[in-house]
Design a protein that fits this description.
The chain is of the alpha+beta class. It has four helices and 14 strands. α1 runs antiparallel to α2 and α3 runs antiparallel to α4.
């Protein structure tokens, strides 16, 4: 059964959504060449402690993880698609970095992710780097467009498959292949609740969407494959062909007035 929350409860979720958005904005600004993934994790940890929040990742140990995650932030770089375990790696200009972050604040959870190109726009005269930047930006843009399309379908009276179908249509329309092993999910008192929301499906299928449902909607794409493997760290999921990946996510409440993005960053 998909949990539903009263309007007053959705109001109670707004502070955790705003906090997650604030942390991701801060981490995005801090993600500069020369900064270590461990430094980013430490910064997130400090902000969690200062807010009195609780990390959803630190002791997280699902069946697909080799051990408890042990960090408070997922940092997936270049060919790492999801669940990137922070380690002693210094970011380089042009790296494609995804940041995924979830916490519990005042008993409620919000979950969000973004992808950025480290160092921003590449004005280097090297053609190979310019071409890579364009490919990376197109990948990010497609993920963002797929996320927006999925959120637009998170409306009372639609069906769960409408969200998935919208994400898949944008992704496949741009020429990417879609992996449905990992995707969105319900969120509320815990990070992962019913339902599972694959990033591709048939429209008009699945449970009917009702006010008070809260979902984490999260498209992710790899440049030239949909196949992944688990890194030796037991957590990081990488593309099988070494192609780069992007991942975006928002926590969204379904309301009578339409979708409410709780983790909106702008």
């Amino acid at each position: 059964m998909i949990p539903r929350h009263r309007p007053s409860t959705v109001e109670e979720m707004k502070p955790v959504g705003a906090f997650v958005a604030q942390v991701l904005r801060t981490l995005e600004a801090a993600s500069q060449p020369g900064v270590s993934l461990l430094e980013l994790d430490s910064l997130a940890h400090t902000m969690i402690n200062e807010a009195g929040a609780i990390s959803c990742y630190l002791d997280y140990h699902p069946s697909f993880g080799a051990s408890p995650f042990g960090k408070v932030l997922c940092t997936s770089v270049n060919d790492a698609a999801l669940h990137g375990l922070p380690h002693a790696y210094d970011l380089e200009a042009g790296d494609l970095l995804s940041l995924d972050f979830a916490v519990n604040l005042n008993g409620w959870v919000a979950d969000s992710a973004l992808t950025l190109i480290v160092g921003g726009a590449d004005h280097d005269s090297d053609q190979r780097r310019l071409d890579q930047h364009r490919l990376d930006q197109r990948l990010i843009d497609t993920c963002e467009q797929a996320l927006a399309a999925g959120i637009a379908q998170a409306r009372v009276g639609n069906r769960l498959g409408d969200i998935s179908a919208a994400i898949g249509a944008v992704s496949k329309g741009a020429g990417y292949r879609v992996n449905t092993d990992f995707g969105g999910h319900g969120v509320g008192r815990t990070m992962h609740e019913d339902p599972s929301i694959p990033n591709d499906d048939s429209p008009g299928t699945g449970p009917k969407l009702k006010a008070g449902m809260v979902f984490a909607i999260e498209p992710w794409l790899m440049q030239s494959t949909k196949e992944i493997f688990t890194d030796s760290d037991g957590w990081t999921l990488r593309s099988v062909d070494g192609s780069r990946s992007a991942h975006v996510e928002h926590t969204v409440a379904i309301t009578e007035k339409g979708p409410l993005v709780l983790t909106k960053r702008d």
